[in-house]
Amino acid sequence: MKKKFLAIVSMAAMLLVGCQSNVERYGEPLIFTTGTTTGVFYSLGAGISTMWTNELEKRVASQASNGSIENLNLMRKGEANISFTTVNIAYEAYNGVGSFEGKQYEDVRILGNLYPNISHIIVKNDEKYNSIEDLKGTSFVFGAAGSATEVESRLVLEAHGIGEKDIKANYVGFTEATDLMRNGQVEGVNIYTGVPAAAATELISTVDSKVLSFSDSAIDHLVEEYPWNFAYTIEPNTYDKQPEAIQTVGQYSTIVIDESVNEETVYQLTKELWENLNLLQKSFSIAKQFSPESAVAGTADIPLHPGAERYYREIGVID
């Protein structure tokens, strides 16, 4: 069964890799934009699309993209119906700020949060770097340009008193960041993904490095000022040579959907997502972090789609 499911996922991932324009918002297929072909969003989106198509007899086609910001722009322009993003990017789109200044997208709605992305500030295992403040004047990888990681890294450093002028910024993905650390070209990087993070595990196991805790004041600032953030503890021994807990912050990856998709369709999509969770967990380890109880947490006041809200009320997640 697992092999059959994975084969179907692979076929679904190949359905759409370019951008379709003029999507019929009530028609089929529903277009689900995901992420780059090497990332978690891409394969997971293909799996969820396949599951929805099989269970609902309503075609949902996954489509590769450059990630959160592009996904919300495609939805805003009517070229997609459903997308993966992080809550901070959905917040910017809904409120017309940040990356969406002058391009407000008021019709974005939450279908459900999936798993927390956690900031791992990883530095060389050197006595010079015992706090994030010690990174001032160094070279640091913010994340890929235009990614949620880049946005969050900027906020994390600012919360520790480090502006962009105080640091040499690099904008690359996790794989390239590991290479830069390995080659001694940067002193630190933010690996912003779920826990345990494969990229963090690889980096720590191949480069003499360590994860830094946030200061208490920085955590307070990040949680109070940015409604998508929450405090998070990385438990001891999650990573090699990590005997103590790491204090950091995170936010949820989420599925968003356009308000125009009708309520009954969104109710069924939400219901099938959670009632087929065990199937997804067999094929995607990250799905073990999904729970309907977390689906409506940390949404930064972005509205739930009425169809999703109906399901969460039905199962008692919200009153």
TrEMBL record:
NCBIfam families per record: TRAP_TAXI (TIGR02122)
Name of the protein described by the UniProt record: C4-dicarboxylate ABC transporter substrate-binding protein
Any matching Pfam family: NMT1_3
Annotated InterPro entries: TRAP_TAXI
Species in which this protein is naturally found: Solibacillus kalamii
PANTHER family in the cross-refs: SLL1037 PROTEIN (PTHR42941:SF1)
